[in-house]
Design a protein that fits this description.
- The protein has four helices and five strands; from the N terminus they run H-E-E-H-E-H-E-H-E.
- By secondary structure, it is an alpha+beta fold.
- It has one domain: MDM2.
- It is globular, with a radius of gyration of 14 Å.
- The N terminus is likely disordered.
- It holds the Pfam family SWIB.
- Keywords: Metal-binding, Zinc, Zinc-finger.
- It comes from Crocodylus porosus.
Length: 94
């Protein structure tokens, strides 16, 4: 298993496309489906793109806490299986 897969289990690998270009990651199929549900196209993304689509997914599905919007409640959503958590804070992403 690559060190990227160990650090980021939602990704198959990460590699630089060319010197000076942003690192591209290839999400594993469950995570890719979540990103695609938020409008992502393709199979490889920069980490900035991943965070954008993940944020879109959370907003569209209204998974955030209405009072404390940095808290995401994902119990009962496919995101729960991916994260392994019922809720998490976007200010402390692990």
């Amino acid at each position: 298993m690559s060190s990227t897969s160990t650090q980021y289990p939602a990704f198959e690998n990460a590699s630089r496309i060319a010197h000076g270009q942003p690192q591209q990651v290839r999400p594993r199929p469950p995570f890719l489906r979540i990103l695609q549900a938020a409008g992502a196209q393709g199979e490889t993304f920069t980490l900035k793109e991943v965070m954008h689509y993940l944020g879109q997914y959370i907003m569209v599905r209204e998974l955030y806490d209405k009072q404390e919007q940095h808290i995401v409640h994902c119990g009962g959503d496919p995101l729960r299986e991916l994260m392994g958590l019922d809720s998490f804070s976007v200010t402390n992403p692990r």
